[in-house]
Amino acid sequence: MSSNINRQFRLKSRPVGKIKTTDFDLVEEPVPTPGPGEAVIRNLYLSLDPTNRIWMSDMDQYMPPVEIGAVMRGGGIGKVVASNSDAFKVGDTVSGLLGWQDYYVAGPNDEIPVGVLPAELPVGLPTMLGACGLTGLTAYFGLLELGKPKAGETVIVSAAAGAVGSVVGQIAKLNGCRAVGIAGGPEKCKWIIEELGFDAAIDYKAPDWREQLEAATPDGIDVNFENVGGEIMEAVMARMNLFSRMPLCGMISGYNTDEPMRGDFSPILMRRINVRGFIVTDFLEKYAEATMELATWVATGKIKSQETIVEGLESAPTAVNKLFEGENLGKLVVKIADE
Ligand SMILES: NC(=O)c1ccc[n+]([C@@H]2O[C@H](COP(=O)([O-])OP(=O)(O)OC[C@H]3O[C@@H](n4cnc5c(N)ncnc54)[C@H](OP(=O)(O)O)[C@@H]3O)[C@@H](O)[C@H]2O)c1
């Protein structure tokens, strides 16, 4: 790829069902030059997230939808290659909403300010998008601040072999809990037990998954870290204990459809479950401290970080579907350029 071209994926149409490559225009522009107060960033890694699908739609959401014709929004990590800004110097490694493109112009009008990462990092850059990035922070705050797990309690998490879920189970173990994961397929179930130290796993794609759920939670469930929604969430809620907690992090089973998700609320009343929806940005002021703790856990081997890395910006519109087909283990990242 010529380094004087900036490839950009611009949203052409709002996806219906699964994301298609035809939902984007791939546009080539000259590499931008920084205006006053701006810096140009060479994007190195792009984070692919289930919320990309939400941003592509015009459903009611927590940020404005990506406008038709705009560069697709996406988190990423890059290096500053030119700067007219006091906030960035050439060579800085940065993270932020850099978009599905080769280069990003950072400046005072950023939707969310781009942050400079420390020069010396104890973990690799892809991990800074995963266990030590926003997905790790999502697991951290959702579980510790909202789930409030106590030693000896049972914590269950869905999408357990994914970016958020894999960290949730490991933090639950660090807190002395019984960690139970729900994942698709025997390999993922084996992986979360043998590699990550979960106590039990439920393969929701197996016909007997409801029996597996019952066997894995003999004392009921004290914390349900909900990532999936739908019938898995309903079956889990039916096993939740009195005064249990349910951080509602995501509902990925509904993202590819316009149908509203329905569910049985009666366990919330009968068992007085504390259900709390959250977005990781709710905890923005605590990011620095939590990132340090996550990075220390990863660097000292207390939690394992896993990334699935796909090569090339051009693969983003197809690779993002891996999240909906369960083809990722841990954090899904696109490598755009060599470090
Ligand atoms: N609230 C926040 O601030 C926040 C931040 C980040 C993420 N999230 C949410 O957290 C959840 C996990 O996100 P992530 O980034 O960690 O993604 P991920 O878990 O790495 O990837 C998504 C996983 O979801 C599972 N999945 C997909 N469709 C499913 C379905 N219909 N039923 C059951 N499982 C399904 C797949 O695993 P299997 O192979 O096991 O099916 C897939 O690997 C998502 O709901 C996301 O929206 C929320």
Please describe what this structure looks like:
- The protein is α/β, with parallel strands linked by helices and 339 residues long.
- It has 2 domains: 5-130 and 305-335, Quinone Oxidoreductase, Chain A, domain 1 (Alpha-Beta Complex), CATH 3.90.180.10; 134-281, NAD(P)-binding Rossmann-like Domain (Rossmann fold, 3-Layer(aba) Sandwich).
- It contains 10 helices and 15 strands.
- The chain has helices at residues 51-56, 134-147, 163-174, 186-194, 209-216, 230-237, 266-270, 287-299, 316-319, 322-325, and strands spanning 5-11, 24-30, 39-47, 76-83, 93-96, 103-106, 115-116, 154-158, 178-183, 200-203, 221-225, 240-248, 274-277, 307-311, 331-335.
- The strands form 3 sheets. Strands 3, 4, 5, 6, 7, 14 and 15 form a 7-stranded mixed sheet that branches.
- Helix 2 packs across helix 3 (163-174) and helix 2 crosses helix 8.
- The radius of gyration is 20 Å and the shape is globular.
- The two termini are 15 Å apart.
- The chain binds NADP nicotinamide-adenine-dinucleotide phosphate (NAP).
